[in-house]
Amino acid sequence: MSGARTLLLMRHAEAENGHGADYERGLTDLGRAQADAVGRMLSRRGYAPDHVLCSGARRTRQTLDGVLGAMEPGPRPEVDYSEEAYSAGVDTLLELVNRVDAGVRTLLVVAHNPTVAQVAAGFVGNEALVSYAPGTIAAVDLEVEWLYAAPGTGAGILLN
Fold first, then answer.
1. CA dist list (Å): 68 to 37, 98, 101, 103
2. How many other CB atoms are found less than 10 A from the CB of residue 99?
3. Are 60 and 32 a contacting pair, CB within 8 Å?
4. Three-class secondary structure of residue 154 per DSSP
C-alpha cells in the first residue's frame, strides 16, 4: 500500500512542576485547555488520526484524552501506550513510527521534548527546536510507508 500518510507530532500539554515521580506528573488547568484546543483545531483542519502512539506517562495520557475528547465525533483511533516512547530519543521514536501498520493513514504521536521537537525539526525545519512549547503539534505529509519514515521523507508545518 502506498500513498500519502500524515504524521502528527505532539508534545504533551503543560504539566505540573516536578514534585515526586516525573512519570506521574499530570496536566495543569492550562494544559487541559491546551489539549482541548488542539483537538478542536485538528477537527477544524480535517485531521482525524486512525492510530495513536502515546507515551505511557500520565501527562501524555491526559493530553491525548483531552485532544480526542475535543475532536468531532467519529471513529476513535486505536491507541498504543508505549513505555518506550517515555524515554525515547530520536532514533527510538522513529523506530516506533516505523513499526506502525501500513494500513494506518494518520498517526498521532504524543510524547516528550526534546525528542518530539528534534523529530519534528527533521521534517519542519529548525524552528521546531525553538518553538515547541507544551501542546505544540506539527503535521507531516509523508510520501513513504511508515517503515521508511525518517527526516527528509516528508514535509511538515507547525499547526499551532
1. 11, 23, 21, 21
2. 12
3. no
4. strand
Q: What is the pLDDT of residues 123-139, one digit of tens each?
A: 998 888 888 999 999 99
**Looking at residue 3, what is its pLDDT?**
56
Q: Which residue has the higher pLDDT, 90 or 18?
A: 90
Q: Cell digits for 3? A: 500513498
Give the dihedral sign, CA 25/28/31/33.
Answer: positive
Cell numbers representing residue 45 in the block: 483542519
Cell numbers describing residue 21: 515521580
Q: What count of other Cβ atoms lies within 10 Å of the Cβ of residue 29?
A: 8
Torsions phi, psi of 28, nearest 5?
-80, 175
Rounded CA separation 42/59 (Å): 19
As beta bridge partners, residue 51 has 78, 107
